[in-house]
Amino acid sequence: MNTSQLFLRTRWRLASWYAGVMGLILGLAGLAVYEASAHAHRITLDRELVSVASILREGLQMRLDRRHQLTPGVWKVVPDFCKLGDRCAESPQERANSPYRSLSRDEYYLYLLDASGKPVGFAGTPPPNMDFEREPKLQTFETQDQGRYRQVMLTLRTHPETVWGYLVVGRSLQEFDEYLNELRWVLLIGLPVSLGLIGSAAWWLAGRAMQPVYQSYRQIQQFTTDAAHELRTPLAAARATVESFLRSPHLSETDAREALRTLERQNLRLSQLVQDLLLLAQIEQQGHPQRQEWCDLSEILNDVTMELMDLAKAAGVALKLELEKAAAIKIVGDDEQIYRLVFNLTVNAIQHTPPDGSVTIHLTNSNNQAVLRVIDTGVGIAPEHQQHIFDRFYRVDSDRSRHTGGSGLGLAIAARIVQSHHGSLQVHSSPGKGSTFTVRFALG
User: Fold this and answer.
1) How many CB atoms lie within 10 A of CB 184?
2) Alpha-carbon distance 319 to 311, whole Å?
């Protein structure tokens, strides 16, 4: 499995886990909302039902005959009341004058039962074929044709110790069931749609989360490849030198010295590479300069110019130093790292400038910032290479030539030093017209 397939598979797994967990949470939340809403409506319905029944009971108990007979006062309390066996006789005037609501308007129904539990009359639209239980309680029952009903039974007393009968008040649950059915449909349709959106978001987020990991993995792969290449070349050269001289039957002193010089060059090359890698790792690990002291940039630039003057002359390049401000320009940082920064930028400029060219180190103070520029008249850098030149082991030359003698870490080290000192490093270059590296530091 290659790298792309591995990360694609990992992305699918992350997206699946995220969508699955979010779907489970969303499903549980939807179930909780459904149950909470149903419970709240059920409690509200029961309270309203008990309240209506209690009001009717109070009105009826004051008007019931102690001889267990119905009196005209019943119709004053319940204008819609119909006595079993008789027609429902109530006048519109009585209904209008009644302080009680018409039960049929609110989908309520009422039954009056005698002491033995037999119905004597009703109001509203009760369900058919009801079976009454003489037990005061709230109950729900279902009919085959007309749906579910909720009702409460209360005891009617004409005297604290005399039971006249029972009052049954109920209502249809059709409206309640329709509401719950609509809520279920909303949840059943909304959950897959939400899961689809969550899945898309999970795929996008997994890609965003995997991007830094993928880039780091590719960088590690590239670093391993480049480091192996950098180490293999001097090791191969040293091994070839040793094998060549071991196969020689006669080795003169001159040949031995030449072999030792070759081994010394390769050893120095390996040592420099290891030192650069250790320095780079140290800077990245610390994240900030280990030493915090005042650094005089003018002195550092003078020292770098003096040290590299011979290298510039050998390359046929004119090295110049320009300090626009007479006063010292100082920053807070590690003077050794700042020296290495200027050294690397200047060496890079000299190595990429042809004979009869020039390299200028320019320092000035602008907007409370120390501005350092290393300007060369060299070969320049193509735009597609400019964003990569600060990567480890990156070389513009595709053949990775060693004519300049560099390890490909100089600019990477320079960039990390600038970053650790909270500065900025920019490059402006055009092929054939030279390059300008600009470093800015905040003044102390």
Assistant:
1) 13
2) 9
At residue 403, φ and ψ (nearest 5 deg) are -65, -30
Placement of tokens 């650069």 in the chain: 276
Q: What is the pLDDT of residues 21-67, one digit of tens each?
A: 988 998 899 899 999 999 999 999 999 999 989 988 888 888 777 66
Mind listing the pLDDT tens digit for each residue in 167-223?
A: 899 888 888 888 899 999 998 898 889 888 988 998 988 888 888 888 777 777 777
Amino acid letter for position 344:
N
How much is the pTM? 0.52
